[in-house]
Amino acid sequence: MKAVAVTTFKAIPQVMELPEPAVKEGHILIRLAAAGLNPFDWKMIDGILKDHMPHVFPLIIGVDGAGVVEATGPGVTRFKTGDRVYGQMLHAPVGEGSYAEFVVVPEKAAIAEAPTGIPLTDAAAAPTAGMTALQLLEKSGLSAGQTLLLVGATGGVGSFVTQLASARGIRVAATVGTAEETERMKKLGATSTVNYKENEPYPTSDALIDLINKGEAFGKMLEYVKPGGAALTTQFVADKKALEAKQLHGGNFETQGTPASLDELRKAIDNEEINIPVDRKINLEQAPAAIAESRELKSKGKTIIVINDQL
């Protein structure tokens, strides 16, 4: 089968011909329609999990994916052949990822029934970014009528957060850098925008979700959150004492991929609370270049790697 993989940590990804994985007990074999590109994919190449999970090489990249169950191993009860599924393919050993024509994953992984209202290729872009957005909003504690300052709004996660918050009656102030981004974010449901390149003032809000700032930059954003509000960062740079000093809750945030969260995300997609913010669709041969571009954090939405659009 074709797959995008590396032979060592920090190597340049390549398209390779590798053996099709065999289904085994407690696992399902998925024929993939597409994979979704996430920054975590190149962090895997750099070895972010090397001290936490076993790895195999060649290491096939990719966490998010969607496809059709091709076969089930002994003991599998959640899925059957022909099921359309989506989710996070990451499992031990790291290196059996979603940038491939086939993947074998434990049935207990963060895999669930795919949305029915969109193509499988689009569903591949939803799992990590969508679950992150859902869980960030839940952690924020915001309700209808309250305000959210969203920093890093134009990427995949930010696009999901904006739509979900808008559907719940939350007023979103989204950071942007261009007039084009302003128009796009307002179409997704942002109530207002803040152009950081033009030094526009940030509004005081009930909560802050910061998807990009690191170090002191996140700390400076806390002044725009009302006392008693929430401040969340996906960059793991929150200082607990600084939050407490400003009477804020939240802090560092990490997504917990679960079938239940995927089910909630599927309902939001099928209820049209979310349109998948697709920036572009590419093929496996184009994936190595797209990974290099992702390292530069230039995303305007989700990149989908189409593997089999006939599923």
From TrEMBL:
Q: Which GO terms describe its molecular function?
A: NADPH binding; oxidoreductase activity, acting on NAD(P)H
Q: Does the keyword DNA-binding apply?
A: no
Q: Pfam families of this UniProt entry?
A: ADH_N, ADH_zinc_N
Spans through the membrane: none
The record's keywords, sorted A to Z, are: NADP, Oxidoreductase
Q: Which SMART domains is this protein grouped with?
A: PKS_ER
Domain Enoyl reductase (ER), chain residue ranges per copy: 2-305
Q: Which domain of life is it from?
A: Bacteria
Write down the CDD domains for this protein, in alphabetical order. MDR_like_2
Q: How is this protein named in the record?
A: NADP-dependent oxidoreductase
Q: What is the originating organism of this protein?
A: Chitinophaga lutea
Lineage, highest ranks first: Bacteria, Pseudomonadati, Bacteroidota, Chitinophagia, Chitinophagales
